[in-house]
């Protein structure tokens, strides 16, 4: 299946213009993120396309900014603490957004069941004859 976002979507939201090989890298990331989204939401759920695009770009930006998922790095006397974990993953908020307005049955939708009790069915007593002719 296709990615939920395009390289142009990434460029517009990140305010960058990508050249090769970054364009190919972002395209591959967006396809991987689409697969991650599809396996992370309930089967049969279709996320809102706008939300899926926004989440895809956010995950791609996070992955491009910090591909190793580091929280802190030190080189010699220089130390840097990163604001958020990098790498390709979906946060709880992103998962909630993807499934909040999705269509389809994820297996946990509410529904009603109508109950009907017609009462006992009485058959006439035809005596000792077998098989009963149901007089």
Question: What does this entry show, briefly?
Answer:
This protein is mainly α and 135 residues long. The protein contains four helices and two strands; from the N terminus they run H-H-H-E-E-H. The chain has a two-stranded antiparallel sheet.
Q: Total helix count?
A: 4
**Mean pLDDT, all residues:** 81
Mind telling me the C-alpha Rg? Answer: 28 Å
Helix content: 25-40%
- The ordered H/E elements are HHHEEH
Q: What is the CA-CA span between the terminal residues?
A: 65 Å
General shape: elongated
Structural class: mainly alpha
The profile of the biggest β sheet is: 2 strands, antiparallel
Stretches with pLDDT under 50, minimum 5 residues: none
Characteristic terms for this protein:
mainly alpha; elongated; 4 helices; 2 strands; two-stranded antiparallel ribbon; 135 residues; 39% helix; single chain
List the helices and strands and how they pair.
Blueprint: H1 7-14, H2 22-40, H3 49-65, E1 72-75, E2 78-81, H4 92-100
Helix pairs in contact: 1-3, 2-3
Q: What do you see in this structure?
A:
The chain has 135 residues and is mostly helical. The chain has a domain at 7-100. Helices cover 39% and strands 6% of the residues. The chain has 4 helices and 2 strands. It has helices at 7-14, 22-40, 49-65, 92-100; strands at residues 72-75, 78-81. It has a two-stranded antiparallel sheet with strand order 1-2. A hairpin with a 2-residue loop joins strand 1 and strand 2. It is elongated and about 100 Å long. It starts with 6 loop residues before the first helix and ends in a 35-residue tail after the last helix. The relative contact order is 0.16.
